[in-house]
């Protein structure tokens, strides 16, 4: 085999790439991870760590740290339908707080010791990155991107570029994994495409949406009904969803973009204030466009020595919170299999057949 710089190169430092890095490095597999931006995500996207994801975090020794972030333990996780946050409650689905679910003797704990937790993906990514930075087997390079790669019979040669300096480097690895999201450079280079249904344009939660991250603690002074985790707001003016992030005033607001409308902080503030229905100060921390209604998957999860995981191979609509959670399961699955092959305890079959 050619001289290698590392065993596995992970392209993409979102939740999937970071979990894969932890799966490998915590088993002592030499690996490197490159991520285009210098920091983890700063806009909240996924806010639901499902039970299986929490079980993976438990195995990695991180579930306690993850549970300390996000929705406070005694915050209700109810879903309510309201006309405005300060308006009329139309319906409420009661759901227990974490504290109730995790209390000794709770029937939920008979299913698994790690139940679903409501916490923003960007906060969890910080925890994952910090752990990866601390593992000697992981070479963590944020601010570096993969620009291309060539597969050989016994290794992959990857071209890397540091964003700040433009410095380039060639890295030789036994395996490359593309965890580089929906616009995956790795997937495109392999010529693999998504198939399925994509973003049919309907009035809500389909097509072009905007995601507005706000801080508005005044909401708690004007909210007309008992607090909940997820508020669906319906009125003649608009339709939106408010996701409670920390129980102190940070929310994620989803709403449909009108035809031709562009995302802006000013417009985000206007929408949030009208959906709240009262004159409270709203600070827009960030606002991003996104596409809802995808049901896409590729027919292959890689080729030869190159694998794909996470959004790079499947895109879900956010409803149900399957996107990130499914990707984390990909990483957990691929991680031990690659470790088995690299460390020689996986038999003689290539990892794709394990
Ligand atoms: C509004 C919204 C709400 C959502 N809600 C949920 C939810 O409740 N639950 C849930 O499970 N999921 C949810 N999702 C989906 C979830 O956010 C994604 O599924 C998840 O981020 C996918 O993780 P990933 O690591 O595969 O990709 P990403 O998070 O996209 O990370 C990919 C990383 O790769 C980097 N990268 C790209 N190209 C390169 C390159 N060439 N070189 C180096 N780095 C590169 C990118 O900069 C990025 O950091 C939501 C998504 C949105 C948009």
Q: Mind telling me the CATH superfamily name of the largest domain?
A: FAD/NAD(P)-binding domain
- Assigned CATH class of the largest domain: Alpha Beta
Ligand names: flavin-adenine dinucleotide
CATH architecture of the largest domain: 3-Layer(bba) Sandwich
Oligomeric state of the chains in view: single chain
How many H/I helices?
Answer: 9
The biggest sheet, with number of strands, parallel, antiparallel or mixed sense and barrel status, is: 8 strands, mixed
Percent helix: 10-25%
Instruction: Report the end-to-end length measured between terminal Cα atoms.
Output: 21 Å
Q: Low-confidence parts, pLDDT < 50 over ≥5 residues?
A: none
The arrangement of helices and strands along the chain is EHEEHHEEHEHEEEEHEEHEEEHEEEEEH
Shape: globular
Alpha-beta content class: alpha+beta
> How large a portion of the residues is in β-strands, by DSSP E?
25-35%
Radius of gyration: 22 Å
Architecture overview:
This protein is α+β, with helices and mostly antiparallel strands. It has 2 domains: 6-70 and 119-197 and 295-353, FAD/NAD(P)-binding domain; 79-99 and 201-292, D-Amino Acid Oxidase, Chain A, domain 2, CATH 3.30.9. The chain is 24% helix and 30% strand. It has 9 helices and 20 strands. The protein has helices spanning 15-25, 51-59, 63-67, 98-102, 121-134, 185-190, 219-222, 265-276, 323-342, and strands at residues 6-11, 31-35, 48-49, 79-82, 89-93, 117-118, 138-142, 144-151, 156-162, 168-178, 194-197, 207-215, 230-234, 239-244, 250-256, 283-292, 295-298, 302-303, 306-308, 314-315. Strands 1, 2, 7, 8, 9, 10, 18 and 19 form an 8-stranded mixed β-sheet that branches. Helix 1 runs parallel beside helix 5 and helix 1 (15-25) packs parallel to helix 9. The longest helix has 20 residues, at 323-342. The two termini are 21 Å apart. The model has no long low-confidence stretch (mean pLDDT 94). The protein binds flavin-adenine dinucleotide.
